[in-house]
Specification:
Layout (H helix, E strand, L loop, with lengths): L7 H7 L1 H9 L4 H21 L6 H24 L5 H20 L7 H23 L12 H14 L2 H29 L11
Length: about 200
């Protein structure tokens, strides 16, 4: 079920030099989260306004940077001892904003209802994982259509101009991913007895 997420350890290793440089320069993890959102917005803009396949290179480069920043912000926080609950919140909000900004690039290429449906579906796997984590389960990541696969599908659209088919695959795949995560969490939580976190504001 991990999909391209299985490559994360390899990718993190490739980014180790950049991570060490960021640590030396005392860069804020929150700044990397913000940079990822900016890259996502740039990818969405390139997708919206550049024709295929001209859009392919900037979209691919900006989404690669978006994924790199998404990997580096948490790693940098751990390396520097700056993991905070506010940082975790900002990370989640940044990821959701980045997803939606990229998909907003389809607004010039596909019907609004389909873009909105894909945007909603794209958030479902993360909401399921967050709900599971709140109930005491491990945070689930990966595919079949997780964050990395969604970025790959957007690049396909930028290369081919197949906006409608890509959005349909993205929406359906994200919904399937959410259901698979939910089924796995349901089974896991049914086998374990955990204390449910308080619902008071934190």
């Amino acid at each position: 079920m991990n999909g391209l997420y299985a490559l994360k350890p390899w990718y993190a290793d490739k980014l180790s030099g950049a991570r060490a440089a960021l640590v030396r320069r005392e860069v804020s993890p929150d700044a990397l989260t913000a940079a990822g959102v900016v890259c996502a917005a740039g990818a969405g803009a390139a997708l919206a306004w550049l024709p295929a396949p001209v859009a392919a290179l900037p979209v691919a480069a900006l989404l690669a940077a978006r994924l790199a920043f998404a990997n580096l912000d948490g790693a940098l926080a751990r390396d520097t001892g700056r993991t905070t609950r506010r940082g975790a919140l900002l990370n989640e909000l940044g990821d959701r904003a980045a997803d939606l900004l990229v998909l907003a690039g389809f607004l010039t290429l596909a019907p609004l209802w389909l873009v909105a449906t894909a945007g909603l579906a794209a958030t479902l796997p993360s909401w399921v994982s967050l709900a599971g984590a709140a109930a005491g389960a491990d945070r689930l990541n990966g595919g079949p259509v997780g964050k990395t696969e969604r970025c790959a599908l957007v690049v396909v659209a930028a290369v081919s101009s197949w906006a409608v088919p890509v959005l349909m695959v993205l929406a359906a795949g994200s919904a399937v991913t959410a259901l698979l995560r939910l089924a796995r969490l349901w089974a896991e939580l049914g086998r374990t007895v955990t204390s449910v976190p308080s619902r008071t504001a934190r």
